[in-house]
Amino acid sequence: MHVGMGVIFQNPHDARPDVDVYRDEVRLALLAEPLGLQSIWGVEHHFTDYTMCPDVLQFLTYMAGRTRDLQLGSMVVVLPWHQPMRVAEQVAMLDNLSDGRVVLGLGRGLGRVEFDGFGVPMEHSRGLFYESAHMLIEGLERGWCEFDGELVRQPRRDIRPRPLRSFRGRTYAAAVSPESAEIMARLGVGILIIPQKPWDVVARELDIYRRSFAALNGVSAPPPITAGWVFCDRDAGRAEEKARQYIGEYWRSVVRHYEFTDDHLARTRGYESYSALQERVRTTLGQDTMADFYLDLQVWGTPEMCYAKTLEIQKHTGCNWFTGVFSYGGMPIEDAQASLTLFAQTVAPELQRLSTADPLPGVAAGSNVSR
Length: 371
Description:
By secondary structure, the chain is α/β, with parallel strands linked by helices. About 45% of the residues lie in helices and about 15% in strands. The radius of gyration is 20 Å and the shape is globular.
């Protein structure tokens, strides 16, 4: 299994100067390669303390210059907030600068504050995403973009620098609804999974995607990439205490940013599938119960527990790639670094030994998970 690291630049409640958050998060990111992780990922968000990386490709360009072998993943570029011709140029440029290390992740966005800030109607997001992604994916394969859609129109223009190599097999998209899964199958891209639903629901939606992908593309779908919020500590009690505190605070920041205590998503075309989540947060279960549910989806505990939880995710999804997020929820940098280091030194090597042909073996002989 491939093991990577995500960096999100979160500053809950604006508790610190943004520049201090950036210095600490970049310091953590620069540990990924020497600790033996295989990729670094950034996320795109705007305007709030939720996460403060408005240009994920710019962050990855910086990381390309500071690393040698790390793959560089976008989780994700939110296409409705961008002119897709510019995205094609930026992606091709980064891939040339990094000697082909880009893993391209795409998405359509969910935050009303972000759509409003860019003056983009949320109800157009699905169409904008599909047309932009269609143009972008085809353009990166042939070296030029041209599109005449309902929402995206682009006269033929070359991508310069020309794409270095094919993006087939290294383009993914976040999909959190059955409708989105079908769209991703039509686009021929892999799936990015950020845990937020019961695993049996995720498995059913992946099955829909895989059947559609095979029917439309004539080949099997690639294994998904999964992400998870990680806290690793040799003391199980301390690990649970810290995970509840910081993963819980991260969940509360999700509720604030996406306005899950409101009901606007049920009234927004293309986002109806989120209405049940808003209802659960607002009335049925409440934020505390949902925080516990969210916590149970993530990877935390001792090294042995983190290993077992990651294998459980693999069992449900068939993934061969796990991206851990280690700093979030106002966690002190010292705790984040200690958790990252322990996970990278004990859990990651065992995950990296796993064969995708035999996804659920026991801990290998000579394991250092419990050392």
